[in-house]
């Protein structure tokens, strides 16, 4: 199986290089207004456009009504932690940001503009992001090293009047929570009683720990484990964490009510849930450790490309439900299920921000989308595109409830709007491909 | 605010105090590599603490909560030959365990130091810490202290 995957990856790599050369980029801007004669330019540009600008000058929020700002977001990165590639800089981050923009557009109907930036400090990043606010309805932070990403997210969420999202933290945390909600339903346990162990304390797991807290999991029942062992307030690196990673520091103090010390094995004793987002496996976590857990253990091994333990081994050792980050196993925990719908929702509500309460609502909507969850099906798949308008509607409704929305509508109203936008966008894609306006790949259909 | 007991350090506190002292020194090394901690000198440190524990020239305080040492403060009494006031208490070691911070324990330790100094007529308290330690800077500024001495250094 590994060999097959490696071969496939190799093929994808070759194709990506060849097709990137052929298409020279994955997205482009395209006019959505009719241009039939020079006369139309007098409307869309000078002199007519001045009237629109004058109107917006009287009320800046009108830019959400009279320009494309309502549906446009920036994908901002400094290129410091790109995929598994590390700090490769903003230029090299561009292909990834374009890919993300494509997914935003295809699944969520969002105009996402890749904006890799060259900045030398956190403060400079904040300054650039804030200066971009008038052009966008939201900001998606992407592939930024930790703990800088926490600082940026926290600062920008506080200081900007549009939603700021960091997908590596919030998207992954939301889909993880959604999967856990259904897993808990299946095994018949209660959120406020289960003990959760997070293995790995990077951006995703730290955000997930905060999100789980917001969702009603008891912080005392949460334990984080990193390469130095169980996170607890007496650890020798606490002062360093306080200075360099206050978010992790705070969790070290708040979580682990029993003050467990030691390694993952100690943490897992009697645990109901293991969420591992650590080093790619397959033996990063010894599958036998599942035996240390409570009855009906839930095991999420999310490292890519190889999970921390193979799902079969986890099951052999007693795991009731297993999820991974891969599409070729059941239960793929994939943040692409989250961000297109979340942004559709916050944009449709012209939201001023997004927070953990909105994310909890999003996670429940994703979980509820799976009508009859089973151990092999706890989350939707990316093909179930109906998820996205439903998620958008739930998110938009929550922002209204929380007073974050500039535009008020019913849940059904938001749903219809999101569905129309996404469906219309998919039709445009289909039509353009049918007409050959989006060119087919030079060697025809791909088949692996 | 937690109900912490501030008292003089006893011999039985040695292990916890040493642990906190070394944590403090490791924290200092985060600010400047000149404070690289020598873990080998533990025995010498223990000997030194034993020596100054009951000396009139030093004040060694601990914060105790539920039989657990949660913070320490060591101050040296210095004679100022050229200046008035003639005596100064300089805080050289000051640490509160991470879990117990933001509970007013630091302030209570300083208040207890003042109480120790009152009978000796010492009214001038200073604090020494690495120049780049913004946490300490902010703490002392918050309780009304200001910068009065600067030390520069270089290893040749």
Q: What's a concise summary of this model?
A:
The complex is a heterodimer of chains A (448) and B (156). Chain A is built from 17 helices and ten strands. Chain A has helices at residues 2-23, 38-44, 49-58, 63-66, 89-108, 122-132, 148-159, 167-187, 203-214, 238-244, 246-254, 264-268, 311-316, 339-348, 356-369, 387-401, 411-434; strands spanning 72-77, 111-116, 138-141, 164-166, 196-199, 222-226, 229-230, 273-276, 298-301, 321-324.
What are its keywords?
heterodimer, A: alpha/beta, four-stranded parallel β-sheet, 17 helices, 10 strands, 47% helix, B: 156 residues, alpha+beta, 4 helices, 5 strands
Question: Helices, strands, pairings?
Answer:
The complex is a heterodimer of chains A (448) and B (156).
Chain A: H1 2-23, H2 38-44, H3 49-58, H4 63-66, E1 72-77, H5 89-108, E2 111-116, H6 122-132, E3 138-141, H7 148-159, E4 164-166, H8 167-187, E5 196-199, H9 203-214, E6 222-226, E7 229-230, H10 238-244, H11 246-254, H12 264-268, E8 273-276, E9 298-301, H13 311-316, E10 321-324, H14 339-348, H15 356-369, H16 387-401, H17 411-434
Chain B: E1 5-8, H1 14-31, H2 42-52, E2 58-65, E3 68-79, E4 87-96, H3 105-117, E5 125-127, H4 134-142
Parallel strand pairs in B: 4-5
Antiparallel strand pairs in B: 1-2, 2-3, 3-4
Order of helices and strands of chain A: HHHHEHEHEHEHEHEEHHHEEHEHHHH
Helix-strand category of chain A: alpha/beta
- Helix/strand/pairing class of chain B, anyone? alpha+beta
The helix tally of chain B amounts to 4
Average pLDDT of chain B: 94
- DSSP strand tally of chain B: 5
The ordered H/E elements of chain B are EHHEEEHEH
Helix fraction bin of chain B: 25-40%
Q: Give the distance, in angstroms, between the N- and C-terminal Cα atoms of chain B.
A: 47 Å
Shape of chain B: globular
């Amino acid at each position: 199986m590994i060999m097959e995957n490696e071969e496939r990856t190799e093929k994808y790599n070759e194709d990506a290089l060849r097709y990137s050369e052929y298409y020279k980029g994955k997205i482009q801007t395209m006019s959505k207004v009719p241009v039939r004669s020079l006369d139309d330019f007098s409307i869309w540009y000078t002199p007519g456009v001045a009237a629109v600008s004058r109107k917006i000058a009287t009320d800046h929020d009108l830019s959400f009504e009279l320009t494309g700002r309502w549906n446009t977001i920036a994908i901002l990165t400094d290129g410091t932690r790109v995929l598994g590639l590390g700090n490769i800089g903003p230029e090299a981050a561009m292909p990834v940001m374009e890919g993300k923009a494509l997914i935003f557009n295809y699944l969520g109907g969002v105009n996402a503009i890749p904006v890799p930036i060259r900045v030398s400090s956190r403060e400079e990043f904040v300054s650039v992001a804030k200066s971009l606010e008038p052009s966008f309805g939201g900001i998606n932070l992407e592939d930024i090293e930790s703990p800088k990403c926490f600082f940026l997210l926290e600062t920008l969420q506080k200081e900007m009047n549009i939603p700021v999202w960091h997908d590596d933290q919030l998207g992954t945390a939301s889909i993880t929570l959604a999967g856990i909600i259904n897993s808990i339903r299946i095994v018949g346990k209660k959120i406020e009683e289960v003990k959760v162990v997070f293995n790995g304390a990077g951006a995703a797991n730290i955000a997930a720990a905060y999100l789980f807290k917001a969702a009603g999991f008891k912080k005392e029942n949460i334990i984080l484990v990193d390469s130095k062992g169980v996170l607890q307030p007496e650890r020798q690196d606490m002062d360093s964490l306080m200075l360099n990673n206050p978010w992790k520091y705070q969790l070290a103090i708040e979580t682990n009510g029993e003050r467990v010390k030691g390694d993952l094995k100690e943490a897992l004793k009697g645990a109901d849930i293991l969420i591992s987002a650590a080093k790619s496996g397959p033996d990063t976590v010894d599958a036998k450790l599942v035996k240390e857990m409570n009855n009906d253990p839930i095991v999420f091994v999310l490292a890519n490309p190889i999970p921390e333990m193979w799902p079969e081994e986890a099951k052999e050792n007693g795991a009731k439900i297993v999820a991974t980050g891969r599409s070729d196993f059941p239960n793929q925990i994939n943040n692409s299920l989250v961000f297109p719908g979340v942004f559709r929702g916050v944009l449709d509500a012209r939201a001023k921000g997004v927070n953990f309460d909105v994310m909890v609502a999003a996670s429940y909507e994703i979980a509820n989308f799976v009508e009859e969850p089973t151990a092999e099906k706890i989350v939707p798949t990316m093909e179930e595109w109906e998820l996205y308008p439903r998620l958008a509607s739930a998110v938009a409704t929550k922002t209204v409830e929380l007073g974050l929305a500039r535009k008020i509508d019913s849940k059904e109203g938001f749903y219809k709007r999101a569905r129309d936008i996404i469906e219309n966008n998919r039709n445009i894609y289909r039509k353009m491909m049918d007409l050959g306006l989006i060119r087919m790949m030079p060697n025809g259909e791909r088949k692996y | 605010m937690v109900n912490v007991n501030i008292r003089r350090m006893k011999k039985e506190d040695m292990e916890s105090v040493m642990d906190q002292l070394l944590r403090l020194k490791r924290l200092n090394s985060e600010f400047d590599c000149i404070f690289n901690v020598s873990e080998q000198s533990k025995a010498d440190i223990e000997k030194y603490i034993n020596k100054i524990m009951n000396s009139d020239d030093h004040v060694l305080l601990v914060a105790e909560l539920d039989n657990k040492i949660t913070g320490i403060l060591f101050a040296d009494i210095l004679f100022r030959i050229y200046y008035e006031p003639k005596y100064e208490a300089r805080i050289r070691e000051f640490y509160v365990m991470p879990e117990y911070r933001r509970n007013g324990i630091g302030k209570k330790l300083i208040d207890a130091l003042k109480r120790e100094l009152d009978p000796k007529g010492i009214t001038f308290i200073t604090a020494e810490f690495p120049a780049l330690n913004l946490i300490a800077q902010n703490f002392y500024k918050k309780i009304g202290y200001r910068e009065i001495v600067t030390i520069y250094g270089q290893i040749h």
